Amino acid sequence: MDQLPKCEANYTPLTPITFLKRASAFYANRTSIIYEATRFTWGQTYERCRRLASSLRALNIVKNDVVSVLAPNVPAMYEMHFAVPMAGAVLNTINSRLDAKNVATILRHSEAKVFFVDYQYVQVAGEALRILVGDSKVPESSIPLVIVIDDIDSPTGVRLGELEYEQLVHKGNPKYVHAELEDEWDPIALNYTSGTTSAPKGVAYSHRGAYLSTLSLILGWEMGGEPVYLWTLPMFHCNGWTFTWGIAARGGTNVCLRNTTATDIYRSIAMHKVTHMCCAPIVFNILLQAEPNEITLTSPVQILTGGAPPPAALLEKIEPLGFHITHAYGLTEATGPALVCEWQRKWNQLPRDDQAKLKARQGISILTLDDVDVKDLKTMASVPHDGKTLGEIVLRGSSIMKGYFKDRKATSEAFKDGWFVTGDVGVVHPDGYLEIKDRSKDVIISGGENISSVEVESALYKHPRVLEAAVVAMPHPHWGESPCAFVAIRNNSAGKTEDLREAEIISHCRKNLPHFMVPKKVVVLPELPKNSTGKILKNELRAKAKELLVSVNLSNKSSNVNPQPIPPFGEQNLQAFSRL
Amino acid sequence: MDQLPKCEANYTPLTPITFLKRASAFYANRTSIIYEATRFTWGQTYERCRRLASSLRALNIVKNDVVSVLAPNVPAMYEMHFAVPMAGAVLNTINSRLDAKNVATILRHSEAKVFFVDYQYVQVAGEALRILVGDSKVPESSIPLVIVIDDIDSPTGVRLGELEYEQLVHKGNPKYVHAELEDEWDPIALNYTSGTTSAPKGVAYSHRGAYLSTLSLILGWEMGGEPVYLWTLPMFHCNGWTFTWGIAARGGTNVCLRNTTATDIYRSIAMHKVTHMCCAPIVFNILLQAEPNEITLTSPVQILTGGAPPPAALLEKIEPLGFHITHAYGLTEATGPALVCEWQRKWNQLPRDDQAKLKARQGISILTLDDVDVKDLKTMASVPHDGKTLGEIVLRGSSIMKGYFKDRKATSEAFKDGWFVTGDVGVVHPDGYLEIKDRSKDVIISGGENISSVEVESALYKHPRVLEAAVVAMPHPHWGESPCAFVAIRNNSAGKTEDLREAEIISHCRKNLPHFMVPKKVVVLPELPKNSTGKILKNELRAKAKELLVSVNLSNKSSNVNPQPIPPFGEQNLQAFSRL
Fold first, then answer.
1. Which residues in chain B have Cβ-Cβ distances shorter than 8 Å to A405?
2. CA nearest to A200, candidates A92, A330, A362, A309
3. Would you give the DSSP letter of residue B287?
4. Which residue in the set B11, B190, B432 is minimally distant from A25, CB to CB?
5. What is the mean pLDDT of residues A58-81?
6. Is residue B364 within 8 Å of residue B391, measured between CB atoms?
7. Least CA distance to B89: which residue of chain A?
8. What are the CA-CA distances from residue B232 to residues A422, A442, B271, B334 (Å)?
9. pLDDT value of position A516
10. I want to staple B236 with a disulfide (CB 3.0 to 4.6 A). Which of B75, B78, B93, B537 is the partner?
11. What is the C-alpha separation between B435 and B439, in angstroms, rounded?
């Protein structure tokens, strides 16, 4: 049977570009994009992408060139997810919260040929370009061509150089036919990691991986036809967890948002009958902080959340409003979500508390992932499914990245014995569902016992006044390491925070945790330090915890509680309490 | 970026086997199969498949060997969809309605090494084997090893040779690890076409094609988690339109049925809370003919139908019962359904009549199909999207067959200029939806005008008394060809059929069709002749129509109506009326 050869009719490269072409054929008059007063149909979106792709070719963009973009969730950002690969190029979306130095690092490393910049970011982009121009190692020919993206709905006239996005779309060929993809292994996107732990790395996705991951997430979330998808998740975040491509696959409507305030979100939901949105659990706080009269859900909104497990207390508040939460786990290297906490119908019978616990688990592999496991990396043996034994989460499948661009060492370290090593530590429950207990580097080893910082954080979140919590290792003369907690607390009715004291938190933890896991020190902050994607900067907290040890040791001589203010975190004030 | 190589962690062959392994990991205790009093969980199904696969290896089955099976929708038939490819072999399910000669032809052509036979089919299988043994061209070593499948729920003791299915499962290794698939292009299944028009051809599927098609159909049908799927569609029919693999992907429950009577179907729906089933529209008649007290749907049942467009009259009767119909179009060569008539929400506002018309269209390509078009095969130009211009439907994508086994000529004829040519003639409507107008060989050319036999049939179905209709070309001395209709009519209240006369039908057609399309002859039959998969045998009707011409010409001399009985179709009586 092997003599039956592949041909163009029965073997076509898997690429998300197909989804747009198909949407234009079958959903031509359906609304593809809503942004303020601007509306496009799928027929128009396909035509605009063809025009832009042809203009990129006219600008000498060739196969595998990198095209960078710094923009919020505006129509241009969406269109580039198709137009750039249709030109044969690789899309590099840059985190818009980065500073000029980091942007410059990415432009340099990616060797971007073109740099699209939303008008809102011309300042940081201009600075980044000046850094490149001033860098003697970067030849002038390597400075990317800059194209500004003005606001399509309310043009501002802001420019950075000669070219503007709409001009390129206008001049392009509406009948442009993109060259057939030769190999589905070709790169489609380059996404830089947020670099909480090390220098940002350029994660390359293949067309095949992006395609399969897109299908998996529609399936895993059970997203039906004609979704109305609200862009609360930045598209620069793993290409919007593949929903940039997925909404085309489903013939849905993209509701684009420049800002994600509670007012904007609720207004969009009400106006456009939003059915789906993705966000980090931190957005739940934004949604909950809205004025009661703003909260107007006439039909349920599906939320896919990730980045951190949704705390039970937040779930209990957000779900009664009409938001239905699905929890996913992923990472840039896995083309976004790799596990989804697929809900089992029988769980509907359980008390709300138990449901929240189940929902906080990371779950099961998406359909197109070949395998997932939790292993002892030394022996590569699988851990028992006891919900207790910690191991490293490893993944395998065609939606895993091609590798790190220009970094063979990091690439080969990430792949071990046929698995991608996530760096996350977790357990497998008896029902096969995975739960992450920590980043491997965040595990606290106290007196030889492994303490999951996430587990301690979960206990902290159970306290009604705790808004944010992070637990890191603090050096300890006796135990080696011991847990140190940083918490931000909810304002009381008078708007004051200072009334929650360490002793109360410690006492709360004693009731909810084994003794060895109780934080030896609790620091209350107005807000925890976070990186540009909203992740808590544990490295910074660890550095702070090291300093605290010293002050604890000193203070210990006189008193059990350290009344001395700790140096501020950046611009934030810090209240510190210590206990040994 | 091209220097980033594939490795085992980021490039794994796409194969449906993954779905079973995953189901066993995450849905281990969920019911996988229900058959009479027998129940299995996904953990058990995986183990049983591992055992069977290891037993096949022990029987010297090696890579790319063909394993044939003749069985109804029993658990063994389902298990073989995973166990056979897990042994590296190719599954060949044989249409259980074929006669011994046809079965022998398939066994010989496929070079089957093992032949599984359900106890119910030992007679036809035994005869087929005797034909092979008696064939001097088949060496003794090429006679397949026979393994009988006894009823797992109520063993009968019927045997055909030494081996029995459960014995193989029992003796197998529960920890068998299937060899890693080297290439997703490797064959997984071999399905013979029903051969209404020519000798049966062996259609080979790749693992890649089966995998992608499975995902597409779950997506196209919007099948959510935990479906309860009733096996009304034979699994031998394009591997149950891929739902053999798809139910594992969704962690659903397979309700297996040996017989598809109305009683069995309604009983299963009520007992097991069936959510989904597939069937040809002909099964709607079975469902409608049930006693009113048998019809007990407490929640909606999704039906995916194909093989023929669902007639509006049937839709109007079946949907109010609680069945929700989705119409798909496919063919063996496309791994089952290739188009799905995806419903658009705005259509809900339309009158029921218009809805039925829209639902009868074949629709839009499934997600993993790369492209579909309707073309003039001479020029390969696309037809205009006017809903009128006929052209051949062509498909392209990774779910199209590898080709016809041992038939290079037929394979190369099926593929033309990068497209698979379906042999179906259709139109594209202005909204992009396709509608089939005919098999290319069924188009009637009358006085230079193309007449779609399907269009004439649709008009006939509008008559309240018409139960079945088929229109074929009849040679005509003046027009070259003219339409000849064969109809089966609904019993009147007294159970009599003879009261509907040709003149009335012709007059009905005159009101509903352009004059040139009105049948020149109408033949009323108690039932239309069908092949083993329920398709109307137009070849047989065409042969009959040729004979009719003669009798018409003769009878024409004396009378306008021919009172002479026409020779019977097989065992059926035939009433013939003629008109010129």
1. 1, 4
2. A92
3. H
4. B432
5. 97
6. no
7. A1
8. 44, 53, 15, 21
9. 82
10. B93
11. 12
Residue A205's nearest CA partner among A183, A186, A180, A220 is: A186
Is a pLDDT exceeding 80 seen at residue B557?
Answer: no
Looking at the complex, report in whole angstroms how far the Cα of residue A70 sits from the nearest Cα belonging to chain B.
21
pLDDT digits (tens, 9 = 90+) for A249-295: 999 999 999 998 999 999 999 999 999 999 988 788 889 988 888 88
A371 CB neighbours in chain B (<8 A) are 12, 18, 21
Query: Of the ranges A8-22, B91-105, B205-219, which one carries the lowest mean pLDDT score?
Result: B91-105
For B414-438, what is each residue's pLDDT tens digit? Answer: 999 999 999 999 999 999 999 988 7
Asked if B456 contacts B483 with a C-beta cutoff of 8 angstroms, the reply is yes
B200 vs B12: CA distance, rounded Å:
34
Record: contact A403-B185, CB cut-off 8 A: no
Cβ–Cβ gap B7/A396 under 8 Å: no
Calpha distance A525→A577 (Å, rounded): 10
Q: What is the pLDDT of residue B44?
A: 98
B163-164 vs B187-192, strand pairing mode: unpaired
Closest chain B residue to A401 measured between Cα atoms?
A: B10
Nearest chain A residue to B431 by CA distance is A26
pLDDT digits (tens, 9 = 90+) for B93-121: 999 988 899 999 999 999 999 999 999 99
CB-based contact A16:A82 (threshold 8 Å): yes
Distance CA A528, CA A525 (A): 6
**Residue pLDDT, tens place only, A271-281:** 999 999 999 88
- Tokens representing residue B462 in the block: 């509008």
Name chain A contacts of B10, Cβ cutoff 8 Å. 209, 396-398, 400-403, 415, 420
Residue in chain B closest to A189 (alpha carbons) equals B1
- Global confidence as pTM: 0.85
How many CB pairs lie under 8 A apart between chains A and B? 166
Asked if A431 lies within 8 A of B403 by C-beta distance, the reply is: no
- B276 CB-near residues (< 8 Å, 6+ apart): B221, B223, B227, B228, B229, B230, B252, B301, B302, B303, B304
Query: Which pLDDT value is given to residue B348?
Result: 94
Q: What is the mean pLDDT of residues B244-253?
A: 98
3-state secondary structure of A362: coil
Give A476's contacts (C-beta < 8 A, 6+ positions apart).
Answer: A446, A482, A520, A549
How much is the mean pLDDT over chain A? 89
Which helix (H) or strand (E) is B482 found in, with range? strand B480-489
The pLDDT of residue A556 is above 70: no
Q: Is B204–A64 a contact, with Cβ atoms under 8 angstroms apart?
A: no
Query: Cα angle at A347 between A343 and A348, to 5 degrees?
Result: 100
User: Confidence class of residue A352 from pLDDT cuts 50, 70 and 90?
Assistant: confident
Q: What is the pLDDT of residue B526?
A: 86
Helix (H) or strand (E) holding B31: strand B31-35
Whether B4 and A405 lie within 8 Å, measured CB to CB = yes
The ipTM is 0.85
* Interface test mutation site (partner A, options B4, B6, B8, B10, max chain A beta carbons within 10 A): B10
B127: number of Cβ within 10 Å: 15
Domains of chain B by start residue, with CATH: 17-258 (3.40.50.12780), 443-576 (3.30.300.30)
Cross-strand bridge partners of residue B276: B229, B302
Of B66, B5, B69, B79, the residue nearest B40 (C-alpha): B79
Residue of A3, A7, A8, A10 best to disrupt the B interface, most CBs of B under 10 A: A10
User: If you average pLDDT over residues B323-332, what whole number do you get?
Assistant: 94
Token pair, residue B214, equals 């499975």
Please name which of A401, A332, A405 lies closest in space to residue A109, comparing C-alpha atoms.
Answer: A405
User: Distance (Å) from the C-alpha of residue B245 to the closest C-alpha of chain A?
Assistant: 12
